[in-house]
Structure to design on (686 residues):
């Protein structure tokens, strides 16, 4: 093939395909070389004469999700039609936001004077520091404490409750005979099925969906709770994570990175409505339509981390919570404000959502999050 | 039309052939199908429920004349349900018979094992059947792949890259000509990138108004053109009403059929109310349409149908 490593003679299709893929890559659409080769083959089939053919051949071979279509269209216009004016509906400007990630700089300054003291004392001091930290309200955390809490939260093991799976596994005294194994072992005894084998339904963990409110009113808690969500996503297979504010953002992929700081940074750049307003009802509608009711929330444990302050219509929120509760196995609402003395769910959104919540729990400290893991695993 | 030779000369010929078999594909989908057939790649279709993902596979089968083999995915599906299994009850019977005739005693354990694991005791499931030699390559429809587990997806990836399956007791089965593979997903979770890379990808949109009218006319030929236009206009309007389940093409066709068999020639409030269940499948959705003004919706649909 002419696409071998030397690649001296390039056909126009090859040249165009490689250059266009490079442009797409620059625009943030991953285009592995295998797909570029498919694109070349596709162009050889449809030719380069017709704009539509080229457009659709590229879409079929280079794209893998509908979210990329808008960017693809722009890149296509620029590359194949030399259109550069911004008349093509531009997306709203992305506001660049980063979460303050803890730099150890300040922390070490404070700690340096203690370094001279003997080791034993430091350890006990540390230990009690951890103990108080566990109970401390997230809103009163310093950056250093936030970093420490990260370590504590990554130790939490979030395990959803198990349910029966369709898959069968062998068992000692199961519900159904395992004929495959029975026959296999009967061969050893000359075809006489002396030992009977059994099987039963395997157990699978329920999917866990975490929805974190990142609006302005949640600001004191969102930073710490995002760490909790990150620890959950990184620690287990079947966890999905979303951020809600004025819009819904799926952040599962961003948080999946093993390096927590990198994951948080990725998520922060992804979420454009950080510390903005709240439209919980609308966001939940979006979640239900696009993900939840279709299958993601079905039989799952859905955890909403929010203070319930909602600027939208409480009727919408109630309606969407009702929908969500109907498909999910359990809905859990984590409210960091619940701990304050004399708390009553007066926030309009909270009051509207509460009838459709199975567990209403606190979420202001590491200790509260530990209790949450208990509730989830129940 | 027989399945001996299908015309793959251009995107237009594919689009015409699909139309001939009752499927009106837009330019993008026709190109994807054309490429999937000429490049012999699996085609991954995503889109809202009811836009015609599964239907496409059926039409491909009737066009090419290949057998339609459907694999419906679900959570926990594994190789014994998708690829092959052994017929244990027949194996047991065989063992009993061998024992009764005294044959078993004469044979060693190895020989007995060879007796049991022959092709005649093999239960061929969808994937294995799709790889069997056939005069015309079959169409393998892997429906709702997003419902299956990751492990199954990885396994499928292996099958789809080489079109072969290995059964330890029997050896490797390889398709002489690869089947046409159509995968569908509702996006309840992300299908693994490695699997997507292997496939051509197409996101099916709801059809444009004119195309939808044409689809209704093609699928429900008894319905008058005016009614077809009104129905298409009404469903199109419903799609922007933020319903739980916006109606797909499948619902448009069902609705037109229902209205047609009731002898309705133009939409009015009574006929819509009595057939609303064909197009809206949630009580809340029906209430919403009712609440936002049924009369207006019908008026709009009638107007839209008149404008050329």
């Amino acid at each position: 093939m002419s696409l071998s490593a030397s690649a001296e003679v390039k056909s126009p299709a090859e040249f165009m395909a490689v250059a266009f893929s490079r442009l797409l890559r620059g625009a943030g659409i991953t285009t592995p070389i295998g797909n570029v080769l498919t694109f070349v083959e596709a162009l050889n089939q449809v030719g380069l004469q017709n704009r539509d053919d080229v457009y659709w051949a590229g879409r079929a071979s280079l794209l893998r999700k509908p979210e990329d279509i808008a960017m693809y269209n722009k890149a296509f216009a620029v590359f194949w039609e030399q259109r550069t004016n911004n008349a093509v509906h531009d997306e709203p400007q992305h506001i660049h936001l980063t979460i303050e990630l803890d730099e150890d700089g300040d922390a070490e300054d404070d700690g340096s004077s203690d370094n001279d003291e003997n080791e034993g004392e430091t350890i006990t001091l540390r230990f009690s520091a951890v103990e108080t930290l566990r109970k401390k309200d997230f809103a009163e955390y310093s950056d250093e404490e936030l970093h420490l809490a990260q370590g504590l939260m990554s130790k939490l093991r979030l395990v959803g409750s198990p349910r029966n799976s369709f898959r069968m596994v062998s068992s000692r005294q199961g519900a159904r005979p395992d004929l495959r194994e029975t026959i296999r072992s009967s061969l050893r005894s000359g075809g006489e099925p002396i030992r009977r084998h059994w099987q039963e339904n395997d157990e699978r963990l329920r999917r866990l969906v975490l929805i974190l409110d990142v609006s302005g009113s949640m600001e004191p808690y969102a930073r710490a709770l995002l760490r909790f969500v990150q620890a959950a996503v990184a620690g287990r297979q079947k966890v999905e994570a979303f951020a809600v504010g004025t819009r819904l953002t799926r952040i599962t992929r961003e948080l999946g990175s093993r390096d927590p700081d990198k994951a948080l940074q990725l998520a922060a750049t992804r979420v454009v409505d950080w510390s903005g307003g709240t439209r919980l009802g609308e966001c939940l509608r979006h979640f239900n339509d696009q993900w939840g009711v279709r299958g993601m929330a079905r039989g799952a444990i859905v955890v909403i981390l929010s203070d319930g302050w909602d600027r939208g219509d409480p009727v919408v929120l109630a309606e969407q919570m009702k929908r969500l509760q109907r498909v999910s196995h359990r809905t859990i609402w984590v409210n960091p404000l619940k701990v304050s003395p004399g708390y009553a769910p007066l926030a309009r959104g909270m009051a509207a959502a509460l009838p459709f919540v199975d567990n209403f729990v606190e979420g202001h400290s590491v200790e509260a999050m530990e209790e949450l893991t208990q509730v989830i695993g129940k | 039309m027989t399945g001996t030779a299908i015309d793959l000369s251009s995107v237009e010929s594919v689009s015409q052939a699909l139309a001939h078999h009752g499927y009106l594909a837009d330019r993008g989908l026709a190109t994807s199908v054309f490429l999937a057939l000429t490049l012999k790649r699996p085609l991954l279709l995503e889109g809202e429920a009811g836009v015609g993902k599964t239907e496409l596979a059926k039409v491909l089968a009737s066009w090419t004349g290949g057998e339609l083999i459907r694999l419906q995915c679900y959570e926990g599906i594994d190789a014994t349900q998708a690829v092959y299994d052994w017929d244990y009850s027949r194996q047991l019977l065989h063992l009993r018979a061998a024992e009764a005739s005294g044959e078993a005693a004469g044979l060693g354990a190895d020989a007995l094992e060879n007796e049991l694991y022959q092709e005649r005791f093999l239960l061929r499931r969808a994937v294995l059947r799709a790889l069997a030699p056939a005069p015309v390559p079959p169409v393998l429809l892997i429906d709702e792949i997003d419902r299956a587990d990751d492990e199954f997806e990885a396994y499928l990836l292996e099958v789809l890259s080489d079109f072969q399956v290995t059964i330890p007791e029997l050896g490797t089965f390889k398709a002489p000509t690869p089947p046409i593979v159509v995968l569908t997903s509702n996006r309840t979770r992300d299908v693994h990138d490695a699997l997507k890379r292997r496939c051509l990808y197409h996101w099916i949109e709801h059809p444009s108004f004119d195309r939808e009218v044409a689809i209704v006319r093609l699928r429900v030929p008894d319905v008058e053109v005016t009614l077809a236009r009104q129905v298409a206009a009404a469903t199109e309007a419903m799609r922007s009403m933020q319903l739980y389940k916006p109606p797909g093409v499948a619902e448009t066709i069902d609705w037109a059929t229902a209205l047609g068999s009731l002898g309705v020639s133009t939409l009015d409030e009574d006929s819509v109310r009595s057939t609303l269940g064909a197009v809206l499948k949630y009580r809340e959705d029906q209430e919403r349409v009712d609440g936002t003004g049924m009369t207006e919706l019908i008026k709009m649909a009638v107007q839209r149908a008149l404008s050329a």
Summary: Chain A touches chain B through 50 residues (CB under 8 Å). The longest strand of chain A covers residues 162-171. Confidence is low (pLDDT under 50) at residues 1-7, 85-127 of chain A. The longest helix of chain A spans residues 119-135.
